[in-house]
Write a sequence for this structure.
């Protein structure tokens, strides 16, 4: 009889082994999900930097020709008035791009991107990023907006 017990092979995992595997998977998920959410937020935030950078040339030209900041950014399909520049004014995650009133002086001109209120990572909801120039469009600076600014860890690489 003792011989029969020794010959018997184990068939499958025990309950404790399965519980250990499930616990390990739970720990890995608890670490991975927040990291992935941060990755998504940074990827979505890069759209703002891209849209703002696309307006640098138009802004520099306007400043060079007029010696002042434009009053408004209008869509490319709209004929720009004498105090306006054309440019992309929204994206998938960016709700609007406008002239940044905090940087709208004779020496400073800025653009402000505001993220959408819905359809965007919760860390970006309605937050702002600003891109402004000094020295007549020769030097550009990017940072979190003065009001409701985007957190430093979500700023695109060009803004840090």
């Amino acid at each position: 009889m003792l011989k029969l017990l020794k010959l018997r092979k184990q068939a499958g995992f025990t309950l404790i082994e399965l519980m250990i595997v499930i616990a390990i998977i739970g720990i890995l998920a608890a670490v991975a999900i927040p990291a992935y959410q941060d990755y998504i937020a940074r990827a979505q935030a890069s759209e703002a930097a891209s849209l703002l950078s696309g307006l640098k040339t138009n802004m520099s030209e306007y400043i060079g020709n007029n010696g002042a900041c434009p009053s408004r950014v209008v869509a490319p399909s709209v004929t720009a008035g004498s105090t306006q520049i054309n440019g992309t004014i929204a994206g998938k995650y960016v709700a609007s791009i406008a002239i940044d009133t905090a940087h709208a002086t004779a020496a400073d001109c800025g653009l402000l991107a505001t993220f959408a209120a819905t359809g965007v990572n919760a860390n970006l909801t309605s937050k702002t990023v600003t891109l402004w120039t000094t020295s007549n469009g020769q030097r550009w600076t990017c940072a979190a907006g003065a009001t409701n600014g985007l957190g430093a860890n979500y700023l695109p690489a060009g803004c840090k």
